[in-house]
Amino acid sequence: MTDKEILTQYVHAHELLIELDEDIQELSTKVLKDKVKGSNPEYPYEERSFSLSGKDCDAWERKIAQKIKQKEAIQEVDDRAQEIINSAPASIQRIIRFRCEKGLPWEEVARRMGGRISGEGRRQELYRYIKNLKKL
Questions:
Q1: Domain spans of the chain?
Q2: What confidence category does residue 134 fall into, taking pLDDT thresholds of 50, 70 and 90?
């Protein structure tokens, strides 16, 4: 994968890592519950309702392993993107931080960065940088 491809996937990879952490946390706390009917084993044989709870360990382990494997693959993309971002000029790092990590609109990015460059100008600055990235 080229630097350009990695950097364009950065936002989605970063968000996916957060979502996968949430999924793993949710799976870790999920408990299956069910109710069954039965009777006392001794006289008087009266019908009773029993509540059962627990985890489907095999399915749970498969899902957790799958999520962890997916997270590791995405983490590689995220780590490589961070390396590319850290080697970029400071202005590009700030644009990426404001736009991609904080999700600010382009005009707010321009305002926070100061100067006379508009939001559209900052957008073009980032896209020119991405376009000119060398291939691996």
A1: 3-131
A2: low
